[in-house]
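Chapter summary example.
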Amino acid sequence: MNKAQIAQSKDKLNRLAWLLDNTFRIPGTQIRFGLDGLIGLIPGIGDAAGAVISSHILTQAAQMGVPKSILLKMAFNIGLDAILGIIPVFGDVSDFMWKANQRNVQLLNDYLEQPEKTVTHSRFFVGLMGFVVFCGVAFISMLGFLLIRWLWLSVEGN
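The structure predicted for these 158 residues follows.
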């Protein structure tokens, strides 16, 4: 993409994120929400539909040549929004608070303005998430091993 196409796409994505996350304001407050929060209220398919719509920002960022570490961070934002949305009541509140689309467009804008800094922060985040996942898998594996060992010893009678 050339600079003009990137600028045009950036403007469209800013408008889309605003539409999805900040279109409406609760009267008398500064609390804003958008169509993503309203779509998330539809039982069963609302959060999945919101994630599919949010993935458009991710796709556009990939077409702009954004590095994988930033795309992974964007995917994390979308995934967390969708997973939290599954939880009754709490998920609906999180749809109004998390604003994954605004976060993703801000990541994209930060990358376009300061690529090195944004890539470094995103790599750190992805590395940290990888470490957390590794520790979680190791912990679950250890618990599984200890459970099997305990069962084995119980069956043997020792």
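To summarize the output: The chain has seven helices and two strands.
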